[in-house]
Amino acid sequence: MILAGISGTGKSKIVRFFAEAVGANNSNGRFRMLSVKPDWNDSTELFGYKNVTDKFIPGVLTEIISEAIENKDLHYFVCIDEMNLARVEYYFSEYLSLIESRRRDGDEIITDGIFSGSSYNSLDYGKLHLPENLYIIGTVNMDDTTFGFSRKVLDRANTIEFSEVSLENLFLENEHFDESGNLTLNNDFLKSTYLNVQEIEEEYRAYAGEINKKIIAINNILKKSKKHFAYRVRDEILYYMVENKRLALLDEDIAFDYQIMQKILPAVNGSEAIIKDILVDLYNVCIGKNAVLSETDYLEDAQAYLKDAVYKKSAAKIIDMLRGYKYDGFSTFWF
Questions:
Q1: pLDDT digits (tens, 9 = 90+) for 26-67
Q2: What's the confidence (pLDDT) of residue 257?
Q3: Would you tell me which CATH number, out of the four given (3.40.50.300, 3.30.1330.10, 1.10.132.80, 3.40.50.720), belongs to the domain 2-176?
Q4: Which of 41, 122, 234, 287 could disulfide-link to 309, CB 3.0 to 4.6 Å?
């Protein structure tokens, strides 16, 4: 998961608070905060390296993974703070590739070995894999000192934006906080239910088919500028929506609105004329009708339809992206 937004909105704090709420903290070693350095250009800081005496020196993430495998019922959280101070693909490529090898081994979800075929392999760490009870969250600030994200990163993550700030809320009432102690939950509480669409239960397959029609309609819009996605994104949206349906968590429109924000819009950017057309078409999906937007006053026209939008958060974000296109000549989710 990626938490994005302006500096100071509490992105890293909310990761810490969530981890502590389910029993993972610094004291028990089940919550770790890693700060990215701008000079990270490979994965040695995370996974390890061999020193001049050919001794394997494990990285921070390797040590956490080793502990998590020994305690499979407990959650382990890693917050990679300001993860885009260096190019994520440079230092995190092994992890991004390994999560694609997830499969079931009995009741456990495992991956290929971290050091399979690697010269870093060691007797102590050679059989490690990414465990099902490890959760990695990255926080990002988008400014002139940071790097953007490739599709390889975005397709594998859900992006949650933190941009709304209410400075009026100066003091919070103490009764909102429960200081009686933390919960200790089994990993099944957060563990992935589905690894492929064939695992979706028969009773939810018709529903998944209806959601898939919505996904196809959006992907056909994105194809106009080759921004369309493939099976991975489709499947993860389906898992999210079926889980939401199965557990009766959110209204369906609210849940799908979140998925447009988290999985679709972060990958839409550019300065080409077709980008504006794509954003307008996506906006029409979000408001549930074909709006007539003028060539010159399309921002004002779009704003007028916003109050009746089916997917309000996504519609509002698209207006922001159109504003960037109109005034800066470049549209992006990240600003």
A1: 999 999 999 999 999 999 999 988 889 888 888 999 999 999
A2: 98
A3: 3.40.50.300
A4: 287
Domain range annotation of the chain: 2-176, 197-328
pTM: predicted TM-score of the whole model, two decimal places: 0.90
Which of 1, 302, 292 is CA-nearest to residue 140?
1
Measured between alpha carbons, how far is 317 from 239 in angstroms, rounded to an integer?
Answer: 24
% pLDDT > 90, the chain:
73
Answer yes or no: are the C-beta atoms of 287 and 294 closer than 8 Å.
Answer: no
Contact 47, 61 (CB under 8 A): yes
Beta bridge partners of 33: 79
Sheet with 31-35: list strands edge to edge.
Answer: 31-35, 76-81, 134-140, 2-5, 159-162
Decide if pLDDT at 174 tops 60: no
